[in-house]
Design brief:
The complex is a heterodimer. Chain A contains eleven helices and no strands. By secondary structure, chain A is mainly α. The longest helix of chain A is centred in the N-terminal third of the chain and has 38 residues. Chain B is mainly α. Classes of the chains: A mainly alpha, B mainly alpha. Chains A and B meet through helix 1, helix 2, helix 4, helix 5 and helix 7 of A and helix 1, helix 2, helix 3, helix 4 and helix 6 of B.
Chain lengths: ~260, ~250
C-alpha cells in the first residue's frame, strides 16, 4: 500500500515538474506557430509514457537505491570503519575504500542515467551510427568515475577546488585543439547531462559525509564541488575517446609516406 | 559477445535491465564484501529495481514517441517562420521555465541557504534564508534562459562552439579569483544540476532540429552544445550572485 502511495505521490510531483514545460511548448505551438502538431496523438502518448516512466524510475530509486547508497556512503566515510584511530593524523591513502566506492558509484549510476541515454540515442542517430550509444555512455561513465575519485581525494587532502577545475578546463581547451571537430559540441554537452536524477543524491551524500568526518573540512566549501568534478571529467574522456578512435583509424588505414 | 534475442516488445525491458547490472553489482559487492552486512529489506530492493527497469523502458519509449518529435517539429516550424525574435523568446522561456521548477535546484538552493546562514554569511533568520534561496534559483534560471538563447544564436549564425565555451571558461576562471570562497563550490555544482531528465532530450532535439533545418549547418557539429551553455552560465551567474549578496 505504501509503495502505491509513494508511486502516486512521485507521479504527481513529476506532473508538476513537467507542467511548465508543457505550458511553454503548447503555448508557443498554439499562439505563435499555429500549426497542428504532426501525430498529436502519438506525441501525447509519448508524453504520458515519459511521465509514468519517470514516476516509476524515481520511486524505484527511492525504494531500492537511495537509502542503501546513502547509508553506504555514510558507513564508508566513517573513520571507525576505515580503521582510523586518530582523525587528526590521517593520510589520504587511508581512504582507499572511499575512492573505490566513488569510482564504482560514478560509473554504474552514470550508465543508468536517462538524460545521458537520450543524448546518446540522438548522437547515434545524427552521426549515422558513427557514434555508438554504448561507446559514448562508457566514455562518459568513466569520466564521472575518474572525476569522483579525484573529487573525493581533493576533499580528503583539502586542496582548493578551483585549482582542479581550472586545471581540468585547461586540459579540455588543449584537447579541443586536437580533437575531431565533429565530437566537440557533443563532448561539451556530455558534461551537463551526467549529473541528474541518479547520480546527484548519492554523490552529494558521499561529499557531505566526507566533509563531515574529516576535521578541518567545512561542509560549505568541501561538501559541494563533487558534482563539478563529475561534470568536468566526462568532457575530457569523451574528447579522449574520439581522439583514440581517430588515431586508431589513421593507423589502420594505409598511410602516406612519412617524409612529407 | 553472443547477442541474446528477445521478443521485440520485451527488448526495451531487457536493455534497461542490462543498464542496471553495474549498479546491482556495485551495491551487492560493497555491501556483502566490504561492509559485510546482509542487504536490508530485500523485498523492497527487488521491487524498487523492477520499478526502475519499467520506468527506464517507458521513458525511452516516450522519448522517441513524444519528446524528440515535438522538439524537432517545433525547431522546423520556427525555422520555417523565420522570426529570430520569437525563436529566442521560446528559447529563453524553455530555459527559464524548466529550471525555475527543477527539484534538484530547489534542494541545492535550500541547502546552500542553510549553510550560508550557519556560516554567518547572511542573517540567520528564516526570511533572509528564503530570499537567499529564491534569489539563487532566479539567478540560475535566468542564466539558463540566457544560455539557451546564446546557444540558439550560435546555431543560427554557425559560430564555432569552442571559442564561446573556452571564452566562458576564461571568464569563470577570472571571476573565481574575486568570488567569495564559500560560493565557489555551490556555483560550480549549480552548473551540473540545472539540466533535468526532461529538459535534456527536449533541448537536444531542438538544437539538432534547428541545425538540420538551417542550410549550411551540420547537425552533428552545430546541433549539440545547448546543454554545454546551460551548464556553463550558471557557474558565472552564481559567483556574481555571491559577490553581490555576501
Amino acid at each position: 500500500m505504501n509503495v502505491l502511495q509513494g508511486l502516486l505521490h512521485t507521479g504527481l510531483s513529476t506532473i508538476l515538474d513537467v507542467l511548465p514545460i508543457a505550458l511553454i511548448i503548447f503555448g508557443f505551438q498554439f499562439l505563435y506557430l499555429k500549426r497542428p502538431i504532426p501525430n498529436l496523438k502519438r506525441v501525447l502518448t509519448g508524453f504520458v509514457y515519459v511521465l509514468i516512466g519517470l514516476a516509476f524510475f524515481l520511486e524505484g530509486l527511492e525504494l531500492a537505491l537511495f537509502p542503501l547508497g546513502k547509508t553506504m556512503a555514510a558507513q564508508l566515510t566513517n573513520p571507525g570503519f576505515l580503521g582510523i584511530s586518530n582523525p587528526a593524523h590521517i593520510h589520504w591513502s587511508d581512504y582507499y575504500w572511499v575512492y573505490a566506492f566513488a569510482f564504482a558509484v560514478g560509473f554504474s549510476t552514470t550508465v543508468a542515467e536517462p538524460a545521458l541515454l537520450a543524448v546518446a540515442i540522438k548522437a547515434n542517430e545524427v552521426s549515422g551510427g558513427a557514434i555508438g550509444i554504448w561507446g559514448l555512455r562508457t566514455a562518459v561513465a568513466l569520466g564521472v568515475a575518474l572525476g569522483l575519485v579525484l573529487g573525493t581525494w581533493r576533499i580528503v587532502t583539502g586542496y582548493p577546488l578551483h585549482w582542479f577545475i581550472i586545471g581540468g578546463y585547461l586540459v579540455v581547451v588543449i584537447q579541443t585543439i586536437f580533437a575531431p571537430r565533429m565530437i566537440i559540441a557533443l563532448a561539451y554537452d556530455s558534461g551537463g547531462v551526467t549529473t541528474s536524477t541518479v547520480t546527484v543524491p548519492l554523490v552529494a551524500a558521499l561529499g557531505l559525509g566526507l566533509a563531515h568526518n574529516i576535521p578541518g573540512r567545512s561542509a560549505l566549501i568541501d561538501g559541494f564541488g563533487l558534482i563539478a568534478f563529475a561534470s568536468l571529467f566526462p568532457m575530457i574522456t569523451v574528447l579522449a575517446h574520439a581522439q583514440i578512435a581517430q588515431w586508431r583509424a589513421n593507423r589502420t588505414t594505409p598511410s602516406l609516406p612519412q617524409e612529407n | 559477445m553472443p547477442k541474446l534475442r528477445f521478443p521485440k516488445t520485451l527488448q526495451p525491458l531487457a536493455e534497461s535491465l542490462r543498464d542496471l547490472i553495474p549498479i546491482v553489482l556495485v551495491v551487492s559487492i560493497f555491501q556483502l564484501l566490504v561492509i559485510r552486512q546482509p542487504l536490508p529489506h530485500l523485498l523492497d530492493l527487488l521491487l524498487g529495481l523492477l520499478f526502475v527497469v519499467i520506468g527506464l523502458s517507458l521513458f525511452v519509449k516516450g522519448l522517441e514517441m513524444g519528446l524528440f518529435p515535438i522538439g524537432q517539429s517545433m525547431a522546423h516550424a520556427f525555422a520555417r517562420k523565420g522570426s529570430l525574435l520569437w525563436l529566442l523568446l521560446f528559447a529563453f522561456a524553455l530555459g527559464f521555465g524548466t529550471t525555475i521548477a527543477e527539484p534538484a535546484l530547489i534542494a541545492i538552493a535550500e541547502e546552500a541557504s542553510k549553510i550560508a546562514a550557519t556560516g554567518n554569511l547572511i542573517h540567520p533568520s528564516k526570511a533572509s534564508m528564503q530570499s537567499y534561496a529564491l534569489g539563487l534559483r532566479y539567478t540560475v534560471a535566468l542564466s539558463v534562459g540566457l544560455a539557451i538563447v546564446l546557444g540558439v544564436i550560435r546555431i543560427v549564425r554557425g559560430w564555432p562552439i569552442h571559442w564561446l565555451i573556452v571564452g566562458g571558461y576564461m571568464v569563470i576562471i577570472l571571476i573565481t579569483e574575486f568570488a567569495p570562497v564559500e560560493i565557489i563550490g555551490i556555483a560550480y555544482d549549480s552548473g551540473g544540476v540545472t539540466t533535468s531528465t526532461i529538459t535534456v532530450p527536449l533541448v537536444t532535439a531542438l538544437g539538432v532540429g534547428l541545425a538540420s533545418s538551417i542550410q549550411g549547418r551540420n547537425p552533428m557539429i552545430d546541433g549539440f552544445g545547448l546543454i554545454a551553455f546551460a551548464s556553463l552560465t550558471p557557474i558565472m551567474f552564481v559567483m556574481i550572485y555571491g559577490m553581490v549578496v555576501h
